[in-house]
Design brief:
The complex is a heterodimer of chains A (about 90) and B (about 325). With about 90 residues, chain A is of the alpha+beta class. Chain A is built from two helices and three strands, in the order ββαβα. Chain A has a domain of about 60 residues: Roll (Ubiquitin-like (UB roll)), CATH 3.10.20. Helices cover about 65% and strands about 0% of the residues of chain B. Chain B contains 13 helices and two strands. In chain B, a hairpin with a 4-residue loop joins β1 and β2. Classes of the chains: A alpha+beta (about 90), B mainly alpha (about 325).
């Protein structure tokens, strides 16, 4: 089989004011063709106003097997949430 | 977009009972499984095969309809058919990408399709003989695919479920454009009516076969159901399809070619005549009218496009080398 064509991850901004969101991936020889293919594959019905393509190999991901340790510190810091603090109702909305 | 009950998957798996129980608990809790998560080899293998067959079906499915693009009866019909066939190509690409997250390469999947090793939906091994076939394919074949795909939007494997949501959004245009073509013919001249009826006669039974073998004969169904890869059995989906489609045929004044078709008040659905499973297996195993043509055409497209792929990679390499050289200056 011939040489493998690189894989790209595609991110689309649905409209101005929103973030780019991952929509899927595709194969293309370079970034120019990747953008063009992303337009054809992922925006045939006005899904976006802006496209990012990123080489898949450039992405580093957290390990799901370590998710418990990775995200554990967020669970026990309830004082980061506004509901942790008692403010009398008389103070009004805060 | 088309899919069929999975053909010949082997869900056998060799992990410890504890590992399998933990995995099953995640599935039972309706957690989605994502690409880097631990999963039983049987789960991975079943999905690679199912998503691969699904992707191949999309790509091969472009061929019977492509046959009529140049002969569409009006510019409106031609533009719509082109857009539909382009969608099918796109659906194939979403699905290949979903399968690749499981560790199979695009090149490997392409090779398996072109060598005849990989299966695709049996429906595409029937010829499109008249323009009415294009209407009936949209109505019945896409209709059957939608029945199959809507529950797949809730499949336990995240990338497959997300691809299906995208596909289902695009799919209803396909069925509506097909039904509109059939409706136009059914309300046309007697010759046009006859074309529509003839197409329905030829596509009805193959469409019912798209859901795959009957539950009693589908050996891999149980494991796929408990892993929530599929949510309904082949027979359940087939029944839903028949119940939805028969009234649509009646509306057009067309006759479903099944003399045993009867409304069954008790079960709240239609009873239907026996499906010719010998024909189904013959077509799946390569004996359909168009199996040889379909693979020949895919091979030709792949081989004729080789120089484009090679040129694009060479061009990308040249630009990369130039950038490196400029940076070094």
């Amino acid at each position: 089989m011939a040489q493998e064509t690189p894989l790209w991850e595609v991110f689309i901004r649905p409209r101005n004011g929103l973030s780019h969101k991952h929509v899927g991936s595709l194969h293309a020889a370079d970034e120019v063709l990747a953008l063009q293919a992303a337009r054809d594959v992922y925006t045939r019905r006005g899904e976006g106003v802006s496209i990012w393509v990123v080489p898949s190999r450039a992405i580093t991901a957290s390990d799901p097997d370590h998710a418990a340790e990775t995200f554990e510190p967020t669970a026990d810091k309830i004082y980061r949430h506004p509901s942790f603090y008692d403010i009398p109702d008389d103070v009004g909305h805060m | 977009m088309y899919s069929q009950g999975l053909i010949g998957a082997d869900g056998a798996t060799g992990e410890t009972p504890e590992f399998l129980a933990r995995f099953q608990a995640r599935i039972d809790a309706e957690e989605k499984i994502e690409p880097n998560d631990a999963m039983p080899e049987g789960y991975r293998r079943t999905l690679i095969r199912q998503i691969g067959q699904h992707a191949h079906s999309e790509i091969v499915g472009m061929l019977p309809e492509g046959n009529w693009i140049t002969r569409a009866p009006s510019l409106k019909r031609k533009a719509a058919l082109l857009a539909k066939v382009q969608d099918e190509g796109g659906h194939g690409l979403y699905l290949y990408a979903a399968a690749e997250t499981l560790g199979v390469s695009r090149e490997q999947m392409t090779e398996e399709l072109l060598s005849g090793k990989a299966k695709y939906s049996s429906i595409f091994n029937y010829p499109t003989l008249s323009w009415a076939d294009i209407g009936v394919i949209g109505w019945l074949v896409d209709g059957a695919a939608i029945m199959n795909q809507i529950p797949l939007c809730r499949c336990s494997y995240g990338p497959y479920a997300r691809a299906m949501i995208r596909v289902c959004k695009e799919e209803s245009f396909h069925q509506r454009q097909g039904y509109e073509i059939v409706m136009t013919l059914a309300r046309g001249t007697p010759a046009q009516r006859e074309m529509a009826q003839d197409a329905l006669n030829r596509w009805w039974w193959p469409s019912l076969m798209m859901f795959g073998p009957s539950d009693g004969d589908s050996q891999h169904s149980d494991q796929s159901m408990s892993w929530k890869i599929k949510r309904f059995t082949n027979d359940e989906l087939r029944q839903k399809f028949i119940d939805a489609t028969v009234p649509q045929a009646e509306f057009l004044g067309l006759t479903v070619p099944d003399p045993e078709l009867r409304w069954n008040e008790e079960k709240g659905g239609y009873d239907h005549g026996p499906i010719d499973w010998a024909e189904f297996w013959r077509v799946v195993k390569g004996g359909g009218q168009m199996n040889v043509d379909r693979i020949r055409d895919r091979r030709k497209a792949w081989e004729d496009g080789a120089w484009v792929r090679e040129a694009a990679l060479a061009h990308a390499e040249k630009r990369r080398a130039r950038r490196v050289a400029q940076a070094a200056e």
